[in-house]
Design a protein that fits this description.
By secondary structure, this protein is mainly β. Helix content is 3%, strand content 52%. The strands form six sheets. It has a five-stranded antiparallel β-sheet. Strands 18, 19, 21, 22 and 23 form a five-stranded antiparallel β-sheet that branches. A four-stranded antiparallel β-sheet has the order 4-6-10-9, with no helix packed on it.
Length: 278
Amino acid sequence: MRIRATVAALSGTLALSALAVPAAQAADGPNLTQRETAIAKAAADETVGDTKITKVVVNKGKNIVVGTTNKVKFDIAITATDAEGIYQGDTFLWHGSDIDNDIDGLLFSEDPDDTCTAVNATTATCTVSVVVDPKLDLYDNVLAGKWKVAASAIGNDGDYYQEDNFSSNARIQRYARLTTNASPEPIKKGKTLTVSGALTRANWYTSKYAGYTQQDVKLQYKKKGASSYSTLKTVKSDSKGNLKTTVKASADGYFRYVFAGTSTTPAVTSKSDFVDVQ
């Protein structure tokens, strides 16, 4: 998964070599080549025999949220069927417009041993674990958003199936932070309260956090003793991601900012700030 050093040299064929495909059938099952070169000569979207992939689930259907330093581990589950049962499944994520000519991101397991669990005699779910390192794998913010999935499955009889753009909603998002600060504190009832904050998110290019600008963020309030928050207004973040608005102090309570999220950035809610109204 060292995309900086490898992606420029990748072609679609080499990218697909991350998937395991049998070279020949042996008496005790498929005769597999080494994982890194197994399908160097195989075409994309190829089917041999009756093996089929019925489902691919990335990170249990949840978005993969990555900050600036911490590595994030997630699983990809491939469910496949074959009349003789499933021997192996494999998969990787890729980013770009064309797997043959335009890949700018690639994430695959560095451990070739997947774990396959039989559902019944013909179907199994194989799980592959992937670790994404933002400092090495996510070198630019253009990699935020939807990623494509390539997947393969091998039957016990040597049949196989592979597809380089399997249907998936896999997204990798930039971790976000949100703050709230209400002042002055304490404050007299009816006076103007200023509620400030900041919406920032991971910048993978600089490995720092930067303001998420021109985004709608809700200011919410919960009166002391109440069970839920209500939205007071929507505030737009400025050119540095800062938030600032004013409200009239009415009663002791909690203020917080809430961001709904976008395709590249997850939803985030700030810690609440309690205000003593006298």
